């Protein structure tokens, strides 16, 4: 669904960015650092969800609701203020609305799954966009991955399998949680696809502010329908969730989304299960063994390959960097 009608040159730029094969320009170091830091911050989300004394979907609602005013303020004070799309930009409105609803579904499903499976599985399954989003990029660009890109995806898949392998148990008690996290991963990939389109026409912070606002009502209604406890007794975990996951984590992610290809963003998502596995080890005694370390090494190698072998051209407007 087009959000605007940019000149033909812009369309080619977008295609190059999606395919990650557009030319000799290296992946922007600042954007690559942003996507890594974003995933480190997001990996702490499951910990704060488990600490919250509200229902799981209600904690997602507070993550969004507490972050929304801060994001709106930052966007308003920034160089690119969050002006509403005009009536002639109905496609952009629709992308923001559907993106916000998809993100609400992702958070709701993921937060339910977090409390019903292990930390590592929740984060790994919840980031199945690792493979869905790059696939979208190659399909959109009508290009096959290069040998280096294929090797990076293979290493990422093997590393993810090793990270999950020991922690996963064929246990009916984990099945619902795992399935909810898989659903969350699919919705997360849809959110990425929609927001990548939004970022063609809108800088990162306003884009995140609008999509965040669109997520509030669906999450509130979802929590009410499930009969969850909504009002918290302790605010600290929810404040940390809003600050760390939505403002810092998603803020950096949306910035990087406009400057990196889906392949780089997708492989970088595997930083989350690495950090989450470490958190589960320290906090919950979910011990690490040789396969886990091997998985970490494979994911790290995949990141090196996509960092060195990838090319990326900015999909968003040039002034996006100023607002990031």
TrEMBL record:
TM segment ranges: 30-48, 60-78, 90-113, 119-139, 151-169, 175-195, 207-226, 238-257, 264-284, 290-306
Entry protein name: EamA domain-containing protein
Region of interest: Disordered: 1-23
Protein keywords: Membrane, Transmembrane, Transmembrane helix
Signal peptide: none
Organism superkingdom: Bacteria
Species assigned in the record: Sphingomonas parapaucimobilis NBRC 15100
EamA domain boundaries: 33-163, 176-306
One GO location term (cellular component): membrane
InterPro entries named among the record's database cross-references: EamA_dom, EmrE-like
